[in-house]
């Protein structure tokens, strides 16, 4: 069976450049301070005059000193903060494992309410790649994948991602992140390069005439797509190098597997590519020195999942590889597209820049999640920008182009999986899929049967690290409900949210509209409210106490996601009120739609 690229219509772009960046590993220094809060009854009384300088009791100081000594450090008191917690200074910056040991010892004291690192915050990483601003699919609130916040935690270090595709060009914005690879194409009529299987996975071009691809009705003639290079660039274009574009997991490495050539590729070659890429043995081929934890298959054909493909996928999964597959571009149910309908894969639908289903994207129960694939019918710049080549047939100049398709959505997901695995390599393929689905955010526009939502890179990385999932508050996912628009304009008539991790679909109907939601926050719990407004509106978020005092707020600009958090440090539940406030931009039951996630 010949298998084709999962690529929609394409259009032009222009030239650019090359990238790099850095994770903070566990061994790197984190901070030289910790914050320790004792329960009210265990705090020595202080006066206004000595509140800042009053230190812990002798017994408390001894516990903290012993804890620091365990990792060979001394600790001293700096001050009390406004919350009556002690700010303690270590003699040097400590690594995360050292901090974990110190804090665990301190928190063993039942009089300690909480102890945590006094973290150093930084401006969120924004690449300086010259065309990053055109990669709306990474950062826009409507259809982007919330990537910049994830980059502060993970960049894909140590993870190999196999791109099973047309091969790659040594684009200057990509070549530094290419390792190994193999050309799996046996048939020289398909390979174009004049030979069979070998260790050279470079793409010589996949152009063809209409007579080259079998009997009528044959597809029309086509120039070379350089499809694998575009897909690879989305995953791992070199980043923060001052030129070109950024990659989702820009410190991961791409293992190129060339399985598609002129007119597509054969299932037998693709299946061997799946097995070899994941570290399995293929007769006649050397062992793969760079086995991949993530496999990107931006390809597909019609029909049921064949036994060869399913067995190859099963083989890869047995080595803990995550297989990410394009849903296809025929606007049909993905149950009729292979390998999108195979078991054990993460099948990806495409959304356009409005966050709704791209008109070409397949859909259905087989789809796990959606990601930006672009919709260039509304403008070239509404496609996905990545690395490419300008050659019509053979290779030409390196360049950048906007493409659209589920082929473009799929590497967004593969890249996010690489980010997740770089922080928690023990995750299984099924755990990865569950996290992606549980942390996906609701669609801002219609995307029927497109999976659980648009992937959220930041929430997925947090969940992989054990910091909770779903974009804020506690882990897991909760129900999605609609706002009761007629009666929630005051604290007294606030809509009660009774289940943790609830997502509310609401709207600001007019400039004078405001919406209140009440939460009974359990003792010791932290509420995180995350508001996603329309892309052309500025809505703000407040958290108020029962007296109406604002105790947390976020007031970012047009189209930006606002997040505010409060912690109930008391011993009983308390009611807080989350308020959505209009500032400027679109309103109405359609144009003024927002989503509010309330996690605790």
Automatic annotation (TrEMBL):
Keyword Protease: yes
GO molecular function: hydrolase activity
InterPro entries in the record: Peptidase_S8/S53_dom (IPR000209), Peptidase_S8/S53_dom_sf (IPR036852), Peptidase_S8_His-AS (IPR022398), Peptidase_S8_Ser-AS (IPR023828), Peptidase_S8_subtilisin-like (IPR050131), Peptidase_S8_subtilisin-rel (IPR015500), Peptidases_S8_13 (IPR034176)
Gene3D superfamilies in the record: 2.60.120.380, Peptidase S8/S53 domain
Alphabetical UniProt keywords: Hydrolase, Protease, Serine protease
Keyword Flavoprotein: no
Record-linked PROSITE patterns: SUBTILASE, SUBTILASE_HIS, SUBTILASE_SER
Peptidase S8/S53 domain segment(s): 157-453
Compositional bias of kind Polar residues: 479-491
Pfam families: Peptidase_S8
Its EC number(s): 3.4.-.-
Annotated region (Disordered), positions in chain: 471-491
Catalytic residue list: 165, 227, 407
Signal peptide start-end: none
Listed CDD domains: Peptidases_S8_13 (cd07496)
Family: Belongs to the peptidase S8 family.
Protein name: S8 family peptidase
Species assigned in the record: Piscinibacterium candidicorallinum
